[in-house]
Amino acid sequence: MTNRPSFLWGASTSAFQIEGAAHLDGRADSIWDVYLHVPGRIKTNDTAGTACDHYHRFAEDVALMRNLGLNAYRFSTAWPRLLPQGRGAANEAGLAFYDRLIDTLLAAEIEPWLCLYHWDLPQALEALGGWQNRDIAGWFADYAALVARRYGDRVKRFATFNEPCVFTLFGYGLGWHAPGIADKAALHKAIHHVNLSHGRAVDVLRRDVAGASIGAIHNRQPCYPCTSSPADAAAALRLAAYWNDAFPVPQAFASYPPELLDAISPYIAPGDMAQIARPVDWFGLNHYSPHYVRDGTNLIGASFGPAPETVPRSTIGWPVVPEAFRDTLLDIHQRFHLPIYVLENGTAANDVIDASGHIQDDDRTSYLKAYTAAMEQAIRAGADVRGYFVWSLLDNFEWGAGYSQRFGIVYVDHATQRRIPKASARWYAEMIAARRALAHAAEPHKWTESG
């Protein structure tokens, strides 16, 4: 249960969404730095040049985490900050930033969880074909080696990728995210080369980090047909193959889902599948809501549709279905037989500072209560869940939505960079403290898991 002493309570962020300092201390452009300047791509034309200014305010943010009682923090390193050209000479100023962050986390008794890639591919590599170029597996392995050798004395938890299904489908298939490509061959090349890069990085991390604990972070959402029509049912299966199975299935079982195999086969070389399916230590899950799917005319033949009118929705229109979270956790447990860490879960809300200076985000608190209760149900039913990380610590740059969607449990005034913990942050801190109190009251010898 979540009152085990080894259970991790954390928060997650990503480099591009919070760091800012986009052109300071040697950092070069990522594909998102370029994409967000394309007219019409970002709501209200927001940019991430400053974002939450975490690059300069990380100590303040770590203090917030400590005050909340978090014992783990998942962040990403920015590839273009560490290797401005994506390969070749490393940037010492960028490397030193993460030294400072990691050391500050450890001093606060917060375990660092380092994700190598959260969507910010160096633009210099995109100019060489990016994820469509098979050589990227070697470039990514070299990047992983740099990170492992620099931080592996202090960091033991590593994720290779965050949500590869999203950045490949939206970035190379549907054209909604950077680099804005909508091409069937580009999508399937990217899927395979990301998988190959994952396997190469796992090997590097095993080699270079003593005691490394390695996984990947997958976004998994049940895909329900919008109607009872056969066309919508088939579309839901197609989307599920891309969204849920294109990455964890080959990484676990050395084979692609049947729905994708013919399209990806031209890019598979001898030995690739064994390289992809390297053993990992845990399954990282990001989950928000189910998808409702209808037949579509796009290149995957599936479109996102509306949820039934009876399904509650968040302020940004996402379905709120806690039982889908429970069922997803149980499905992962039964299919992949790995410890599970929930590395993103949360919701956006209409957060307003009241006259007393507080943010009473009751919708977010209700969501978190319902979803952590659903996680408890899954654990009682046998799912081996060992940690929960809320998305997100801070209101940040939410990709195409810019700053119009606030997912943080800490409010950020982006004009002044003032941080204000919301009511949901207080609830999260109180819930964590209560679970820890239960754990301390239990007999210690009953809980011997390392987590």
What is the count of structural domains? 1
Q: Indicate the multimeric state.
A: single chain
Strand order of the largest sheet: 1-2-3-4-5-7-10-11
Find the structural class using helix and strand composition. Answer: alpha/beta
Task: Report the CATH architecture.
Answer: Alpha-Beta Barrel
Global shape: globular
What integer value in Å does the Rg equal?
Answer: 21 Å
Number of helices: 16
Architecture overview:
This protein is of the alpha/beta class and 451 residues long. The chain has one domain (8-446): TIM Barrel (Alpha-Beta Barrel), CATH 3.20.20. It has 16 helices and 13 strands. It has an eight-stranded parallel β-barrel, surrounded by six helices. A three-stranded mixed β-sheet has the order 6-8-9. The longest helix is centred in the middle third of the chain and has 25 residues, at 184-208. The model is unreliable at 446-451 (pLDDT under 50).
